[in-house]
UniProtKB/TrEMBL annotation:
Keywords: Apoplast, Manganese, Metal-binding, Secreted, Signal. This is Germin-like protein. Gene3D superfamilies: Jelly Rolls. It comes from Marchantia polymorpha subsp. ruderalis. It is found in: Secreted, Extracellular space, Apoplast. One of its GO terms (cellular component) is apoplast. GO terms for molecular function: manganese ion binding. The keyword Repeat does not apply. It comes from the Eukaryota.
């Protein structure tokens, strides 16, 4: 009986993690008259001037919040810029798979499956790589001089992002564990290993 309840709950959670299905051609925002919608409703200009701060990894996401025309369509996009020697740290997307396309430069990427196996690749301009939904993955620009630009498409209008370093080390868990089991690695002792 317990197994049946667990399976039912898992199914409900999995179904609830998807974008809602549309019963019309597209979603009309609340308070907007559908007859007043023009082609501009389907256009987004917010990526034109994006640039990451110097010496950092930066991203500009476009979800149904920034671009209401995406509501219910099951797609989202993020423009990514990796300054030299920068990392998009290990993270997951709980509500959608990611397909990354390298626009300029070379990018090292990796994902870790549920059996804890690492799959990595070196991407060139024009290459694609897919990160299956909810698997831990990362990207690194190993170049000391060149910036990398990429665009990621998602199988959700709001794929969500769970950044492992921020969620683990920003949660206070290291203090709780330290009190319970003694010394545990902290952000200061783990992250320097990841720096280049």
């Amino acid at each position: 009986m317990k197994l049946v309840v667990v399976l039912m709950m898992t199914t409900v959670v999995a179904v609830g993690a998807r974008d809602p299905e549309l019963t019309t051609d597209f979603a009309v925002p609340v308070g907007m008259n559908a007859s007043m919608i023009t082609g501009d409703f389907f256009k987004f200009t917010g990526l034109r001037d994006f640039s990451a701060a110097p010496s950092t990894f930066g991203s500009k996401k476009v979800t149904h919040i920034e671009f209401p025309a995406l509501t219910g369509l099951g797609v989202g996009v993020t423009l990514l810029e990796y300054k030299p020697n920068t990392l998009n740290p290990p993270h997951t997307h709980p509500r959608g798979s990611e397909l990354i396309y390298v626009l300029a430069g070379h990018l090292d990427v990796g994902l870790i499956d549920s059996a804890n196996k690492l799959y990595s690749a070196h991407l060139h301009e024009g290459d694609l790589f897919v990160f299956p939904q909810n698997l831990v993955h990362f990207q690194i620009n190993m170049s000391k001089k060149k910036t990398v630009r990429a665009i990621s498409a998602f199988g959700s209008s709001n794929a969500g992002t769970i950044s492992l370093p921020r969620n683990i080390f920003g949660s206070g868990i290291e203090d709780e564990l330290d009190a319970d089991v003694g010394h545990v690695p902290t952000r200061r002792t783990v992250l320097p290993v990841m720096e280049f």
